[in-house]
Structure formats: C-alpha cells, structure tokens
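Sharing a chain and its predicted structure for anyone who wants a worked example. Both blocks are below, sequence first, tokens second.
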Amino acid sequence: MMNQEEAIEILKKNYPKTAKKVDGIYVGGFDDVDCEFGQALTIAISSLTKQIPKLVERSKK
C-alpha cells in the first residue's frame, strides 16, 4: 500500500504541462501551476504535507 509521502511525490509528477516563450521560441514541459487543476494539486499537496506530522503524532499516542 502507498504511504502519504509516495502519494505526494506522484501528485507532484502529474502537474499539467505548459509551454512558455523563451528567447522568442516556445519551449514546453513547464508545470502549469496557474491553471485550475494545477492550483488544486498545489492545495492538495500542501494539505497532505501539513497533515503528515499530525498523523505521526496521533499514532504515537
């Protein structure tokens, strides 16, 4: 079974991609963190990252 850290890494690898103009030429492969799905992924990753220490703390009790 997958743990939280592995899930976060998979989410980070699945950002939608976009192209940007670099020196007048479009270059692709940049993470599109500004689109709606990219923003949702950023929020989900942030939430999971904050949740991990709390889960560890609860499991110790």
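Comments welcome. The chain has a mean pLDDT of 89.
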